[in-house]
Specification:
- By secondary structure, this protein is mostly helical.
- It folds into two domains: 74 residues; 51 residues.
- The radius of gyration is 36 Å and the shape is elongated.
- It starts with 20 loop residues before the first helix and ends with a helix.
Length: 141
């Protein structure tokens, strides 16, 4: 027993004529999946490129910070030596003064940081969440 083929000579595996609704939906889903796969592959390639790009930027930033730290260190040494020469004092006293100055700046930065920690963050969001919670409590009664 043979199955007759439609006039176009083609038949789908389900036996329905070609171009039926299910066949079109299957092809649409397959096309959508292929499109999504291509876009995800492109996103993966671009993510690797972005990772490399930002890795280089971070490495350059770390290098710049290291150079700045050494530059600042050399500047402090030069200023210490110049002040000691100008005031005709031992460099040890000038170094002590520079150390005290640096500790004072560090203590000031810590105090400002602690004061800033006490300020509320996300206050607007927390206020909205409290309003939402009050509304939910009010409507649930």
């Amino acid at each position: 027993m043979t199955v007759e083929q439609p006039a176009g000579g083609q038949s789908s595996p389900s036996g329905s004529p070609p171009g039926g609704l299910l066949e079109h939906l299957r092809e649409l889903c397959a096309s959508g999946a292929a499109y999504l796969q291509a876009r995800l592959a492109l996103a993966g390639i671009e993510a690797k490129e972005a990772l490399l790009h930002f890795g280089i930027i971070i490495a350059l930033f770390i290098l710049a910070v290291a150079v700045i730290v050494f530059g600042y260190l050399f500047l402090c040494i030069a200023v210490t030596v110049l002040i000691a020469k100008l005031l005709c004092v031992s460099p040890g006293w000038v170094i002590l003064g520079m150390a005290i100055l640096h500790f004072a700046v560090a203590a000031g930065a810590v105090l400002v940081g602690v004061a800033r920690l006490k300020t509320a963050v996300f206050s607007g969001t927390l206020a909205e969440l409290k309003k939402d919670q009050q509304w939910l409590n009010h409507t649930s009664r």
